[in-house]
Specification:
This protein has 150 residues and is mainly α. The protein is built from five helices and no strands.
Length: 150
Amino acid sequence: MPSYALEVPSEYGYVLTAAVSSLLVHTYHFFLTVRARKASGIAYPISYATQEQADKDPNAYLFNCAQRAHANYTEALTPFVGSLLISGLRYPIASAVLGGTWAVARIVYATGYARAGPKGRQLGNGFGLLSDLSLKIMAVTACIKMLPSA
């Protein structure tokens, strides 16, 4: 079974910078959630306000929204980083731009969701999904191009 050396493009640092930006998005979520928790009065270790609390108190409802935005971010993070790192091996600049766009979109998503509920997440969600899907397609393409010729 022949092997080959994996060459990392010289522009791969941009890809890694985009990956690190996603870690900063995580920190942003942390601050949004802490602020919403404090405003709601929901004490640790309670993860979410009950439906009754959320119905009665707008701050409890917005706390749930901030928590859900953070949970959605953590659900999306692993596939995003995987797609970014793989696609960046073949398309480093495009991947980095899409990765940065995804990070900004996630901030817009989190801010909108934490301030206005589910309707507030739409703009960030749209750009985030487009960036994510593009990275996934590019990752698949990069993998196919790395297969040995038959």
